[in-house]
């Protein structure tokens, strides 16, 4: 047994026996000391099954050990990297001690008697240990210098590292990891990672080389949680390298059509091959190509497309062009542009979209009226001029010119023009918009007309005429008669001068035909044809007979059966009319027209009606455009990329007679048959997208579409019936899964024009999660998967966020490798080897060790987490209990949840332990004289620690109240003994005792100190010493010393003494042998001061004396400042308390009075009239006789009696005098009135005079005179004769005025 002190400077306290008492020599610094623990010895480390164990020898009395590991041997707080508390004699670090490089560390151990730091002994001398650097992952994939051709995904894989809680992946295009081009991905769990987006790369044969490294991140041994202030391990010595590229060959689309100039493109649609990994395409159509870069320049049309088909929405004018397509990945990075390809756009007269360039001539309208021979022109009467031509496919309108062939230089006639949607024109001189429904006709205007009569077409004129077609872009908003907008197409003129005279047309005009009657007649034969065959034309041709005397005709058009809803009135010189505008389609009812002959003035502004000329009856027709149809075409074509292309037969085939058209209107309806809008397009195709300028993909689903031709005004005609189609992006294909530990990398072949991909993973049998993993690579990594079987699906999103069809994989399995236990079942673990061992598991980062005293509670037991494959149990376990244990391998992810991701779990094993005995307590400590008996109970059951009976060590020492102690003495006690008696102890001395049990496993902690003292004189005096006084006695009482202060021996009596003032002490002999805590002192003087002393006695001697000063009691002195204040038959009495209460509190006061006979002046006897409480210092006396003299005195009372009376004070009560009586008034002479009265009774007061008052009305009074006290009359000499007066008298005194007397009246003489 090694005994140590808390301070080296503490010198031994010498215990010297002097006369049977103990004398202590106080140390320089007083301190309470106990049996402290030495530093552990023989620190060492060893490697067992790959795990480093720190070991040391046990310390007797220690229940706990504290280990510290630091980077220096001074163990500065900032340099300590790990601490651990354990009950075992070894420690296997649960977290890494390594850093980014190998290093030497220092460690030390201290023993503690309990878990409290206050019981800790000194630390051992530092021991040194070499520690390797933290482990570094091995890079697995990409393989060194691997090459990835986009869109092949890049996924990173590395080997697991024991103890890692996460990994940090870094990749960069800079071998120096320069900022701006370096990506750091922290907190990765598992050994896979797939970036969500494609990595940096360039195209056109300029690949990017990337570098990568992985560092394991470990839990900090000092941190409470595994993720607080983690430790990052070193990176690989050589970084990984790989190359990512998107080559020109793989990124450039191949253009399919149009290709070359050998075929003329009249209607445009562009198609190309899909590019793997492309999210969208950009198309550029221009007029030249940069020779250096191969990029199309002078761009006229650009567009974005998610499909591999592109149809321009606007017109492209004729010419040779180049087109080029560039693919873009989901991140917006472009691939190599395709090779620019030339094509020729020209307006052909064919109905098909294309035609051969061989012998191609740009189209023009072919006239069907007129002679090709100027010398032999076609004659036509003025009223029958009607220029006609064949329709041209794709034409919106036609422009006509009639050119006069001038006969002389003076002939200044100009060309007459007309723009029309029809394929013929006639002369229109004036137009008046309808009064009711003018909007039913639009685009009409004067035709072949000039406001000057000399410029108009007239008899005798020779004309050449020509026509050309104009094609507005489908979405153009320019009106029919406005200047042709830029970007429109114009055909050749029909008479282009290329030497071919057959294209010219001539006619000569003769006079108008003579009239056939006074009113016109409709050409019914012509109208029968027009009204039935021209239903889709912009306007019908109206014919009638000439009217005698008429030079013009008025034609009115209506929009109802009654010919009352006015649309337009048009004036012409001819007997027919071809309106050059476009009538609205009629959905119900008919159009009606009427005509009559008129005589128009030359200005064509006014007219008269020839006699008998009337409007014809109504002629009717219906206007309804011919629907587009799908004859000979496939309306819906779905490409491999999922895009849908609509096709229909061109209007030139489906409705060749319907006149000019601006293109087509396309509308799409959803599955509820609700229109999603309408879009105007130029060509007879449309790629199914949103019907707006954004042209985004449609959401997956069922739809239908309809198409209508646009008339020359841009208004849609009748739509086709709905054609159903389905939008469904193709599903990704070729799904593969790579599993490593708890991570799985999922890969697939992407779809064309996918903006990103969505992935879902679920355990087989569970529901699909609502959360979707979204990536733009064709692979992703899912991590932290628990063991089990999983399935997954993937789909793509287009640029609008719409999903494609889903592709579902087969299943994959996360294996659950099971740790194999090495510690044999039933093993008995000693304090020197309290270690559980198991075999390592591939892919495991750490292990969870659980142990419990019942197999059923094992799964809920707190898990200890370690990177090692063995674990030193740090807690105290019970001897005699069978423990169950299991170990679970876990991956990197940190969690405290019971549902955390795990690998395999071992089978359940068993073990038991042997321990040092549990701490033994001193059950009883008995002091008898100078002997002490210490008793205890032998530990039983688990507290025994092992099967062997423990031996004991009993330590004791003497101490005093100042902290001075003697050295501990330690006695060895054999097993089985449960008490020990110590003899020969010093008297009046406190002894401290501690007990320890030990066996082969070690010693228990020392018990708590129990102390007891050998007997001595009382150590403390009596307390609560008090005295209760009377006038002749003092009853003295006290509280005896407690049993802890009686010196260890019972109190046997008290030494009681007293004295008066400074007189001699008087001893109360009887008290020395009485244990009563009170005594009464008698025969004392009243109001005298006494000093009293009391000291406790035991068989050893007297204790400290306690003293008390007390006094006997007396009666109170007289109250002070007694006063009496008179009142009306009363007096108010007051006083102050006496100057001395005599030693006993005043309990109240008594008041006495006496009266003086006014005749004999003798006083009556004192009579008690009032008593009050101690706090009441006033009273009042009532029922006194006014005018009588009284005396009052006061005395204080206490419990001892009535004190001295005060001196008497006099008081004479008084009131106001009584009203005078016998008042009379008499007119004794002229103007004189005499008032008389009898004197008032004084009522104890002193009368000072009388006030004589008068009134002229008996109610309002004035004082006439105030007399002396002796007066009984008054004469007034200023009265008015014959006037009545009232008089009364008031007595006045020192107390106040009396009431007024009765009033009397008299009339003055």
From TrEMBL:
Residues 1-30 form the signal peptide. InterPro entries: FN3_dom (IPR003961), FN3_sf (IPR036116), Ig-like_fold (IPR013783), Striated_Muscle_Regulatory (IPR050964). GO terms for molecular function: hydrolase activity, acting on glycosyl bonds. Residues 626-730, 916-1017, 1018-1113, 1115-1217, 1219-1309 form the Fibronectin type-III domain. This is Fibronectin type-III domain-containing protein. SMART domains: FN3 (SM00060). PROSITE patterns: FN3 (PS50853). Keywords: Carbohydrate metabolism, Glycosidase, Hydrolase, Polysaccharide degradation, Repeat, Signal. Pfam families: fn3. The keyword DNA-binding does not apply. GO terms for biological process: polysaccharide catabolic process. The lineage of its organism: Bacteria, Bacillati, Actinomycetota, Actinomycetes, Micrococcales.
């Amino acid at each position: 047994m090694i005994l140590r002190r808390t301070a080296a400077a503490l010198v031994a306290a010498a215990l010297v026996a002097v006369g049977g008492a103990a004398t202590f020599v106080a140390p320089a610094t007083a301190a309470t000391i106990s049996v402290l623990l030495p530093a552990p010895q023989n620190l060492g480390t060893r490697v067992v099954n790959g795990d480093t164990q720190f070991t040391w020898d046990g310390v007797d009395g220690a229940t706990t050990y504290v280990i510290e590991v630091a980077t220096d041997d001074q163990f500065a707080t900032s340099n300590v990297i790990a601490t651990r508390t354990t009950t075992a004699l070894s420690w296997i670090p649960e977290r890494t001690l390594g850093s980014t490089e190998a290093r030497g560390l220092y460690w030390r151990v201290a023993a503690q008697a309990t878990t409290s730091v206050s019981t800790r002994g000194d630390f051992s001398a530092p021991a040194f240990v070499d520690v390797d650097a933290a482990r570094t992952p091995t890079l697995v994939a990409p393989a060194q210098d691997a090459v990835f051709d986009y869109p092949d995904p890049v996924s990173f894989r590395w080997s697991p590292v024991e103890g890692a809680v996460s990994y940090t992946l870094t990749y960069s295009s800079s071998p120096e990891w320069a900022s701006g081009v370096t990506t750091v991905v922290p907190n990765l769990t598992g050994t896979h990672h797939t970036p969500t987006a494609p990595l940096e790369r360039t195209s056109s044969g300029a690949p990017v080389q990337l570098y990568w490294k992985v560092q394991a991140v470990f839990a900090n041994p000092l941190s409470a949680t595994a993720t607080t202030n983690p430790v990052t391990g070193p990176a690989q010595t050589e970084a990984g390298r790989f190359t990512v590229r998107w080559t020109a060959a793989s990124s450039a689309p191949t253009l399919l059509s149009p290709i070359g100039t050998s075929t003329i493109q009249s209607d445009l649609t562009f198609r190309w091959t899909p590019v793997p990994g492309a999210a969208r395409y950009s198309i550029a159509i221009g007029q030249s190509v940069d020779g250096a870069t191969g990029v199309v320049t002078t761009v006229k049309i650009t567009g974005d497309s998610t499909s591999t088909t592109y149809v321009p929405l606007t017109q492209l004018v004729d010419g040779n062009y180049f087109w080029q397509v560039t693919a873009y990945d989901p991140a917006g990075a472009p691939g190599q542009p395709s090779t620019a390809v030339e094509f020729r756009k020209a307006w052909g007269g064919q109905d098909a979209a294309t035609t051969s360039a061989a012998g191609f001539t740009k189209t023009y309208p072919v006239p069907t009226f007129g002679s090709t021979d100027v010398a032999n022109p076609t004659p036509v009467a003025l009223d029958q001029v009607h220029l006609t031509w064949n329709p041209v496919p794709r034409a919106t309108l036609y422009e006509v010119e009639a050119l006069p062939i001038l006969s002389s230089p003076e002939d200044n006639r100009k060309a007459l023009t007309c723009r029309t949607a029809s394929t013929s024109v006639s002369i229109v001189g004036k137009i008046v918009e309808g009064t009711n429904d003018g909007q039913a006709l639009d685009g009409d205007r004067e035709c072949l007309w000039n406001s000057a009569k000399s410029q108009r077409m007239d008899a005798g004129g020779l004309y050449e005429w020509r026509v050309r077609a104009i094609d507005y872009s489908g979405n153009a908003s320019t009106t029919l008669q406005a200047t042709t907008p830029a970007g429109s197409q114009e055909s050749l003129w029909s008479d282009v001068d290329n030497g071919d005279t057959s294209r010219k047309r001539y006619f000569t005009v003769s006079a108008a035909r003579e009239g056939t009657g006074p009113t016109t007649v409709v050409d019914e034969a012509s109208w029968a044809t027009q009204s039935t065959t021209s239903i889709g034309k912009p306007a019908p041709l109206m014919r009638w007979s000439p009217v005698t005397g008429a030079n013009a005709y008025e034609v009115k058009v209506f929009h109802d059966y009654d010919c009352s809803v006015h649309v337009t009135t048009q004036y012409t010189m001819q007997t027919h009319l071809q309106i050059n505008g476009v009538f609205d389609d009629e959905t119900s009812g008919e159009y009606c027209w009427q005509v009559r002959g008129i005589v128009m003035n030359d200005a064509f502004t006014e007219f008269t009606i020839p006699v008998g000329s009337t409007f014809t009856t109504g002629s009717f027709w219906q206007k309804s455009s011919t629907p587009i149809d799908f004859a000979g075409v496939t309306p819906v074509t779905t490409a491999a990329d999922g895009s849908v292309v609509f096709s229909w037969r061109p209007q030139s085939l489906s409705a060749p007679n319907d006149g000019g058209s601006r293109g087509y209107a396309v509308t799409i309806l959803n599955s509820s048959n609700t229109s999603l809008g309408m879009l105007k397009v130029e060509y007879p195709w449309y790629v199914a997208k949103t019907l707006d300028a954004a042209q985004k993909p449609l959401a997956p689903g069922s739809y239908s579409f309809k198409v209508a031709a646009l008339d020359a005004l841009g208004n849609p005609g009748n739509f086709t019936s709905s054609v159903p189609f389905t939008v469904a992006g193709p599903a990704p294909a070729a799904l593969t899964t790579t599993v490593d530990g708890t991570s799985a990398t999922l890969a697939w072949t992407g779809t064309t024009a996918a903006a990103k991909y969505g992935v879902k993973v679920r355990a087989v049998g569970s529901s699909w999660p609502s959360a979707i993993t979204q990536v733009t690579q064709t692979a992703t990594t899912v991590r932290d998967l628990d063991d089990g079987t999983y399935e997954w699906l993937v789909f793509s999103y287009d640029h609008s966020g719409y999903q494609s069809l889903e592709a579902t994989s087969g299943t994959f399995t996360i294996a659950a490798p099971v740790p194999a236990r090495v510690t044999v079942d039933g093993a008995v673990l000693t304090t020197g080897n309290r270690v559980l061992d198991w075999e390592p598991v591939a892919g495991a980062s750490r292990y969870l060790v659980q142990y419990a005293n019942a197999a059923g509670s094992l799964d809920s037991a707190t898990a200890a987490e370690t990177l090692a494959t063995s674990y030193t149990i740090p807690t105290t376990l019970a001897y005699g209990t069978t423990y169950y244990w299991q170990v679970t391998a876990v991956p990197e992810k940190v969690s405290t949840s019971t549902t955390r991701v795990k690998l395999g779990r071992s089978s359940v094993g068993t073990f038991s332990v042997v321990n040092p005995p549990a701490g033994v307590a001193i059950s009883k400590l008995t002091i008898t004289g100078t002997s002490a008996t210490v008793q205890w109970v032998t530990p039983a059951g688990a507290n025994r620690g092992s099967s062997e009976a423990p031996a004991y060590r009993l330590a004791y020492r003497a101490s005093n109240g100042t902290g001075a102690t003697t050295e501990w003495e330690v006695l060895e006690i054999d097993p089985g003994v449960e008490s020990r008696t110590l003899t020969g102890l010093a008297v009046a001395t406190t002894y401290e005792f501690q007990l320890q049990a030990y066996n082969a496993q070690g010693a228990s902690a020392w018990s708590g100190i129990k102390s007891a003292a050998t007997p001595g004189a009382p150590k403390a005096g009596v307390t609560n010493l008090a005295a209760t006084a009377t006038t002749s006695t003092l009853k003295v009482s006290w509280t005896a010393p407690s049993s802890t202060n009686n010196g260890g021996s019972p109190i046997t009596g008290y030494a009681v003494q007293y004295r008066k003032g400074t007189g001699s002490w008087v001893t109360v002999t009887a008290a020395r042998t009485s244990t009563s805590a009170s005594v009464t002192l008698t025969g004392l003087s009243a109001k005298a001061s006494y000093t009293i002393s009391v000291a406790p006695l035991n068989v050893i001697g007297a204790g400290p004396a306690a003293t008390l000063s007390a006094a006997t009691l007396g009666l109170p002195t007289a109250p002070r400042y007694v006063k009496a204040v008179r009142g009306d038959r009363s007096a108010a009495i007051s006083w102050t308390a006496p100057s001395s209460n005599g030693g006993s509190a005043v309990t109240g006061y008594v008041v006495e009075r006496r009266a003086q006979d006014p005749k004999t002046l003798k006083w009556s006897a004192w009579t008690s009239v009032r008593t009050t409480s101690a706090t009441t210092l006033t009273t009042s006396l009532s029922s006194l006789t006014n005018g009588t003299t009284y005396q009052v005195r006061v005395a204080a009372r206490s419990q001892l009696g009535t004190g001295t009376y005060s001196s008497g004070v006099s008081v004479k009560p008084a009131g106001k005098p009584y009203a005078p009586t016998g008042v009379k008034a008499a007119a004794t002479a002229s103007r004189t009135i005499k008032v008389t009265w009898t004197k008032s009774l004084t009522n104890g007061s002193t009368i000072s005079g009388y006030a004589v008052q008068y009134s002229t009305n008996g109610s309002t009074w004035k004082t006439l005179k105030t007399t002396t006290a002796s007066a009984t009359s008054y004469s007034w000499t200023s009265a008015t004769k014959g006037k009545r007066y009232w008089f009364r008298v008031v007595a006045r005194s020192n107390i106040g005025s009396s009431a007024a007397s009765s009033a009397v009246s008299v009339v003055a003489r």
